Predict the 3D structure of the following.
Amino acid sequence: MKNFNFKSPTNTKEATKLATGRATYLAGGMSLIPAMKLRLAAYSDLINIKKIKGLSGIKVSSKSLKIGATTTHAEVASSKEVGKSISSLAILADSIGDPQVRNRGTIGGSIANNDPAADYPSACLALNAIIHTSKRKIPADKFFKGIFETDLKKGELIESVEFEVPEKSSYAKFPNPASRYAIVGVYVAKLKKDVRVAVTGVESCVFRCKKLEDALSSNFSTSAIDSVNISSKGFNADIHASAEFRAHIIKVMAKKAVSSC
Ligand SMILES: Cc1cc2nc3c(=O)[nH]c(=O)nc-3n(C[C@H](O)[C@H](O)[C@H](O)COP(=O)(O)OP(=O)(O)OC[C@H]3O[C@@H](n4cnc5c(N)ncnc54)[C@H](O)[C@@H]3O)c2cc1C
């Protein structure tokens, strides 16, 4: 933790050039710094990306909502544009951690980190997001690979996240009362072409729940969820909740989300 170089590039090109060897990007530091402090991770160089112009901000069109990587959770939560085009996303951002975390943590940092209980990954999957990086555009369906693992290659920088504007959407979370991370979080979105349901907090990585998607595609109502059977096989079990409890809560949260769509 103690010995590292601190660099503050002002553009993306400079930042990606610096990201070699044991260097890494630093955004809000809300996940990276605790990991370094606990000696779970160590780096030779921290590349502060918060000074890079153009990496922060919100752009809306009729079809999509694009959020810059270093935009904080608080900025998303309080954005009138987000509230107007995808209000469920603003509500999700407002449910993350506490005011300190929301004022430092960024959307890019959250999805790059891919914590199994993080909120934003579920929004990315449900809202058919495209992750724009310094190298390419990655569909959310291909981005989240496993526990704290994504499709990002060494030095690849997330520049923005582009969400499809849904017809209807809602996020319901059963939070850990201390951290506010999701014990179970369910994001439901009715898009132009399909219905998507993403679940976080339940497995080692966020996932789409096909059974709920099928049920809601034929009947977008809470009653359609009653007949869905969610197996707890492979689900997380820890001091907060058993696998069976999580399976039960998925349906409860899915109903809550659909009823507030
Ligand atoms: C007390 C507490 C409570 C929390 N509660 C919640 C919660 O309820 N829900 C939730 O979802 N999260 C929660 N979080 C996590 C929080 O949302 C963090 O903001 C997030 O996990 C990391 O974002 P960051 O900007 O701080 O990234 P950092 O900690 O700076 O970086 C995290 C990782 O992402 C990489 N990275 C950062 N930005 C980029 C980029 N643009 N391109 C490529 N790689 C990048 C870094 O190199 C690092 O590996 C909580 C955190 C704390 C400390």
Remarks:
- The CA atoms of residues 15 and 64 lie 27 Å apart.
- The chain has a mean pLDDT of 97.
